Amino acid sequence: MTASQEIETRLRETAEQLLRDKKVDVFLGYEKASLPFRTTPLFVTSPEQVDRLAWNPFCTINLAVYLPRLFADSRRGGGRAEPPPPPTVGIVLKGCDLRAATVLIQEHQVPREKLVIVGVACPGMVDRRKAELALGEHDALGAGEDGEGNVHAVIEDGVEVKLSREDVVAEACLQCRTPTPSMHDVLLGSPVEATDGDGDAGRKQTADFEAKAPAVRWAQLREALADCIRCSACRQACPMCYCTECVMDQTRPRWLGAGTDGSDVMIYHLTRAFHLAGRCTECGACARACPMGIDTRLLVRKMNQEVEDLYGYRPGDATDTTSPLSDFSMDDPQDFLTEP
Amino acid sequence: MTEKTIAHTDLDRFLDCLKEAGTVYVPAKDEAGEVRLAEASNVESVALAYRNFRMSPKAFFLPQNQTLLRFNEGRVEEPAPPDQGTSFLFGVRPCDARALLALDEVFLSGDDEDPYYKRLRENTVVIALACERPVASCFCTSVGGGPGDGAGSDVLAVALEADLLLKAQTPRGEQLLSSVEDLLADAAPEAIQQAEELIRSAEDQISPVRVDNSAELLREQYDSPIWEEAGLTCLGCGTCSYLCPTCHCFDITDEMRGKTGRRVRTWDCCAYPLFTLHASGHNPRPSAKERWRQRIMHKFRYAVENFERLFCVGCGRCIRNCPVNMDLRRVLKRVGV
Amino acid sequence: MEKNPYLPYAAHIEEAWIENDARDIKSFRVVFDDSADAGAFSHVPGQFAELSLPGMGEAPFGIASAPTETDHLLFSVKRAGLFTTELHSLDPGSPIGVRGPMGRPFPWDRMAGKDLVIIGGGFAFTTLRAAIVEILDPANRGDFGSLLVVYGARTPGELLYRPELAEWQERDDIDLHLTVDQADEGWTQNVGVVTSLLESLKPASQNAISIVCGPPIMIKFTIVSLLNLGFDEEDIILSLEMRMKCGIGMCGRCNIGSKYVCKDGPVFSRGELRALPVEY
Lengths: 340, 337, 280
Hints:
The complex is a heterotrimer of chains A (340), B (337) and C (280).
Chain A: H1 3-20, E1 26-32, E2 39-44, E3 53-54, H2 67-75, E4 89-93, H3 95-106, E5 115-120, H4 128-134, E6 142-145, E7 151-154, E8 160-163, H5 165-168, H6 171-174, E9 186-188, H7 200-210, H8 214-224, H9 233-237, H10 262-276, H11 285-289, H12 297-311
Parallel strand pairs in A: 1-4, 4-5, 5-9
Antiparallel strand pairs in A: 1-2, 1-3, 6-7, 7-8
Helix pairs in contact in A: 7-12, 10-12
Chain B: E1 4-7, H1 11-21, E2 22-29, E3 35-39, E4 65-72, E5 75-77, E6 86-92, H2 94-108, H3 115-122, E7 124-129, E8 155-159, E9 163-168, H4 171-179, E10 185-186, H5 189-204, H6 214-220, H7 226-231, H8 239-243, E11 250-257, E12 260-267, H9 288-307, H10 317-321, H11 328-335
Parallel strand pairs in B: 2-6, 6-7, 7-8
Antiparallel strand pairs in B: 1-9, 1-10, 2-3, 4-5, 4-12, 8-9, 11-12
Chain C: E1 9-18, E2 25-32, H1 35-41, E3 48-53, E4 57-62, E5 73-78, H2 82-88, E6 95-102, H3 108-111, E7 115-121, H4 126-136, H5 138-141, E8 147-153, H6 162-170, E9 175-180, E10 190-191, H7 194-201, E11 208-213, H8 216-228, E12 236-239, E13 255-256, E14 259-260, E15 267-269, H9 270-274
Parallel strand pairs in C: 7-8, 7-11, 8-9, 9-10, 11-12
Antiparallel strand pairs in C: 1-2, 1-6, 2-5, 3-4, 3-6, 12-15, 13-14
Helix pairs in contact in C: 7-8
């Protein structure tokens, strides 16, 4: 049995127990998808369904994105009817996913006591686009994992192609600093060493970019975003973007146009980066969702690094801290203030 | 309309002739190695070995953003028509060409005609390229199309070993082929047979999806609990609609700079939470359940009721690109279609 | 060349006045800059138009004036969002664009020769006013039977077109009954919901057609009352609202099932609605 299969078995057992004991109203996990290199989210409500739960190298989705909506009804104040009580939600969370859930708890979107967190130590997930590109002209008809964590894709005529894990693992996973969820009610999988524990790889990418002349940086940013079709998939896939009225959709005032004018595209992405500063856990859900394959993490990662440098704060570390951008203390660094 | 052939080695000359008549777009690899439709003058070599483009060619007919009116110091005017001449799209897959017929129903068949769509449609010539190797997410044959279907295109091309087989689908296509007749030969019976075999083999590779009586069955299943379950995972991200060749829903907003500006239409998506929100705060589709149901209903029932046409051409882009693997084939099956 | 359906007619606001005590409903008398456009516009009561303000966008409003009121169009608009707030702030003389007329009007061919029962609630009375003015015009009055109008609002100050309502109550070719949920000093007419008043009036359903416009909850209960009175569901006519943009059935936003409220509606019979999904 591969490591993934072991985790899958334990995951199903755990979910079944939780559902049978009525410790959770719903259990959020992954299910085999209808195409290779992917999984689909599964909301399990009865113990009989747990055999559909899967754990494999394609469990890329950050399930924390579903948490705000599961608790939205119970949080609704005002109105005549009493809001329904919040559900208890069991959920599978990888290291980055858990950090996202932590921020949601910190921001009072999700009550910790209503979550049963099944954490999984994550060795890094496969980027389906990398895998598809690696197959070139071939189309995968199936995919699985071998004992060493490599991906075996089945193409036409039953031919198997081996794709080594490091070639197809997601970019976000190459810069992972916390593969093992620090907060959990159950932990599955053996501890995994972070590929980039100190964040050096991420900082190097930022530093390399910053070393370029401003005109070059601007040109490269413009080019990276040239394909943006303003679908907002990055926003919708992001667990941190839960505002019921997003600034991009406001009409009074209308801050930006809805087209692909360069200025509008920039405002969208720059604003999102600012709104995510100190909140984004760099899970890569945005880049994965983008239909145009744009890696939207570049800008936010820089913002996060600034917050970390200035305030020693990383989003998702603990639920009892407050994001420095929503808090104030007298000894906050203020060397950006100038003499009048 | 008789079939013609052109040698692969003459393709460049064929494209050069088209370039004299307008702007030509051909499939070409970009830096990432992906094939997309690019302006021929910027392209080193035409790529013919690809499955399909990530984006549908819908943007040539219904751009992501399109100026409807110009505002200038209190004057409200139609924008000057684009000085585009004719565009030639070479290498459009049959599913994407067929999708144009759905867009024609929306923009041209009612009491009002959309002049912006009409202008682009009339000035864009589509040369479709039949598919040899469908992918796992293709299901064109189940929705009235096929890898060798010429509907919606002006010319259908089939890539054979030494030649391209060309068959005009419209008078405009006939005209196009006549204009390059020096480069063409009448298709030999072997070539025609080869093409038929190629297409048949492609058809065999496609797994069928049942969509018969979809309109009737979806009508019966409107209140099924399946929609709640199926819609649960939808992120409302818009990827499906934006990549879909038949999705046409749009928003209209005004953009101003002082006293000048424009009224612009931009792509919109029924999965977005704000799509049907009233000013009063009432929303007839308040959750992902209603919105996902609307998507399926629109394509497989309402379009059939209004136009006797499915608004899905089986290109599979929604299934391939959905970040959470929403799969309308799966939903149709569950609903009992 | 076909007219571009997205290009509004140029018009201007000739007069604007507050309609209600809450001061959030304003009526606008709109005149085409070019009188030839007025002729081309020629609407049928029940239809709507999209009013356009550069920079603010557009919004759909029922046309409150009848075609017999040839020199202007009347709109009554509640201030709710970006567009309506701007509209409310405009002075007479301000330019405005008008696109239309749009939508399927009231079924005038079926209404001919019938007794008419018109029921309105709140500020949804706009297109009903257009219908009433049209019916009362001497050239048309003979084409219809009796005309019963029941109109209710929360308070007397929220009734629209009060001076006209008073005039109509003096006439003998229209039987107008008003009601409010909450009376004020000086209110001498009915108090109570529209349906109670309707039921007490017991209009005959034989050879009659009813038109209902109002908030969703009022429509729901009024339909029940009318069915109880024996009205056939094809003879109960409703006008719906939806978020709209293009107004011509292309942007895909305002559909109920396979019908677009802008193009196949906004007027629907109760029978037609029952065949559609309940998504409005």
